[in-house]
Amino acid sequence: MTTAISCTNLTKKFGSITAVNHISLEIPKGSIYGFLGPNGSGKSTTIRMLCGLITPTSGSGTVLGYSIVKDSEKIKQQIGYMSQKFSLYEELTVDENLDFYSGIYGIKKNRAKRHKKELIEMAGLTGREKQRAGSLSGGWKQRLALACSLLHEPEVLILDEPTAGVDPVSRRIFWNVIRDLANQGITVLVSTHYMDEAETCDYITFIYNGVLLANGKPKELKEQAETQTLEDLFIQFVKEHDHQKGGEKDAAIHTLI
Fold first, then answer.
1. Is the pTM of this model over 0.90?
2. pLDDT value of position 115
3. 135 Cβ contact list (under 8 Å, min separation 6)
4. DSSP-derived secondary structure for 81-128
5. For residue 12, what are the β-bridge partners?
6. How far, in Å, CA of 104 to CA of 149, rounded?
7. How much is the pLDDT for 253?
8. Distance, CA of 132 to CA of 19 (rounded, Å)
9. Which of 21, 123, 124, 248 gives 20 to 30 Å between its CA and that of 12?
10. What values do phi and psi take at 10, rounded to 5?
């Protein structure tokens, strides 16, 4: 197995608050890796560290062999990143947004023109090239953002809750596109709190209160825990974690007494 992304004891603190607590994981190349957890669990903070956007408090990590601490600028050039908030220019058309980001990435005109056409078709945006981004629905906006993140043909695609607030039909279409990209050899790390989306991932990780609870293949994790759904599995892990933390707290109080 060739690893695209890895981290060891990755930790991020903001003052007295530990947002991510000693997370270790490995993401195989060409896989869809789901990062699951409720809002505030540490998903976005972990992703921002892996993208080289913020520096870890401690621990280490690599993306395509580059250190997330020493080579953050190189990582930014090699990955496609899509945040959970629509970040394109709403007053520009679909075409104009793609042209603008082609310029940002420094893509030559001939290559940009050819690849832009391919991405418009991939995202199902054919016929909407002259439509302003701000007039698109949530699902169409996310598909445009995905197309822009793929302009420079990255080997790794990192998506931070890309379908939050998007209707179920658009979510399914979006995930069909993600699967097609993985079939082409692109590694996809995607955070979500939708368990039905997680079922389609090759591997998943559960994160809760900044702590990694479990990781592996969805089917194998359910079989090991003898649960029917990932939602039941996650709830089970959370209860075990909270019970353990409660036990540790009781032990600490007993020691003080």
1. no
2. 87
3. none
4. EE-SS--S-TTSBHHHHHHHHHHHHT--HHHHHHHHHHHHHHTT-TT-
5. 20
6. 11
7. 27
8. 37
9. 248
10. -70, 125
Q: Is 161 left (phi over 0), alpha (psi -120 to 50) or beta?
A: left
CA-closest candidate to residue 212, choices 10, 5, 50: 10
- Yes or no: say if 200 and 230 are a contact pair by the CB < 8 Å rule: no
Task: Give the residue among 194, 156, 191, 165 at the shortest CA–CA distance from 31.
Answer: 156
Q: Packing angle between helix 230-256 and helix 218-225, nearest 10 degrees?
A: 60
Torsion sign, CA atoms 100, 101, 104, 106: negative
For residues 52, 158, 202, 199, the Cα torsion angle rounded to the nearest 10 degrees is 120
Two tokens at 140? 């169409």
First and final C-alpha spacing in the chain: 51
